């Protein structure tokens, strides 16, 4: 809940908790994993359109009519006060994509849902059903940079010199249980791990000073933000390219989204048949 989080007495108590957590820790990153599907889904011909029909802006409400796997979004600033914001954001995108590739079943789940998203949505309405797939992961990013502001609701836009990593995710985990819950929870864990690994690998710019102060000594430690990527020149700054499932950015097992194509993209690995020794082959001892 982010509505009214900067109000003295917000309508949602959870909003105050978010602000209090941020004020207590002043973190580099504030992650907010979300879940969907049930309360977002719109059932065609059911006479129920849900609240998402009223959504406007870059993402139309119709975008929620079909599940689209696990996804996240990123933004950055390019004003003169934050010249490193874009580099940090695109590096984080690579960390996230690489971490998702290691999470069991996540890319297969995304490929399967992205194929359905294309079949029933994108091929009919590309404006509403966008597919910004990067390394098999759906990452929404604005075409241009964002602008920080003192009245922005987001932590990173309101205080970009403190919190530069303000991320959220959406996972199809509502009503999940059993193996499916394990899969989508693994995606959330991989997302958190990506940010922790970025901080672990990153370059910290720390300055320690000391000086005499009356009859004592003053010690001071300053750390500049953001934490810089380990090798910024090696990270990709290319935008996410909308591709059809089965394209260059999708796993090789991803379906193409054509009519009547089976969508089983997570088959059970076949067990190799045991070798039967030939009559002339030496028999192992019993």
Overview features:
two-stranded antiparallel ribbon, alpha/beta, 286 residues, six-stranded mixed beta sheet
Fold and architecture overview:
The strands form two sheets. The protein has a six-stranded mixed sheet, with helices on one face. Helices cover 27% and strands 19% of the residues. Strand 3 (132-134) and strand 4 form a beta hairpin. The chain starts with 12 loop residues before the first helix and ends in a 44-residue tail after the last strand. The chain has helices at 13-25, 85-102, 106-122, 155-158, 178-201; strands at residues 29-36, 71-74, 132-134, 137-141, 165-172, 203-213, 216-228, 241-242. It contains five helices and eight strands; from the N terminus they run αββααββαβαβββ. Helix 2 packs across helix 5. It is globular, with a radius of gyration of 24 Å. It has one domain. It is of the alpha/beta class.
Q: What is the number of domains?
A: 1
Rg calculated over all Cα atoms: 24 Å
- Which oligomeric state applies? single chain
> Strand order within the widest sheet?
1-5-2-4-3-8
Alpha-carbon distance between the termini?
67 Å
Q: What is the helical fraction, as a range of percent?
A: 25-40%
Q: What is the tally of beta strands?
A: 8
Look at the helices and sheets and give the structural class.
alpha/beta
Instruction: Give average pLDDT, whole number.
Output: 79
Please work out how many helical segments DSSP would assign.
5
**How much strand content do the residues show?**
15-25%
Could you state the order of secondary-structure elements as H and E?
HEEHHEEHEHEEE
For the largest beta-sheet, the strand count, sense and barrel status come to:
6 strands, mixed
Low-confidence stretches: 245-282
The shape is: globular
